[in-house]
Amino acid sequence: MTQSSMLIDLSQDSEPEDLIQPKPPRLFSANLAHRELSSTIPLKRKSDIDSDSSSVSPFNAFTPVLQPNNGNINNTHVIFNPKRRSEPYTPSPAPESGIELSVVVPSPSAQLKREIDSAEFIPDIKLTALSQEFYPTDALEKRATRGAYPAARSVKREAIPFRIGNPGPFLTEKERKPVVDTLCESLKRKLATIKGPPVTVSPGDMKRLAQSTSSFEFINRYKLRDGVTPIGNEFSAGCSCNEICDPARCSCLTQEENSEERIIPYKTSKEDPRFWGLTPEFMQRTSMIYECNSLCGCNERCWNKVITQGRKVKLEIFHTGKRGFGLRSPDFIRAGQFIDLYLGEVITTKHADEREKAAAARNAPSYLFSLDFLVNDDGIYVVDGCNFGGATRFINHSCNPNCKMFTVSRNHGDEYLYDLAFFAVKDIQPGMEFTFDYNPHMEQVDKVEPGAVPCLCGEPNCRGQLWANKKKRRERF
Ligand SMILES: C[S@@+](CC[C@H](N)C(=O)[O-])C[C@H]1O[C@@H](n2cnc3c(N)ncnc32)[C@H](O)[C@@H]1O
Question: What is the protein's major site of localization (predicted)?
Answer without folding.
Answer: nucleus
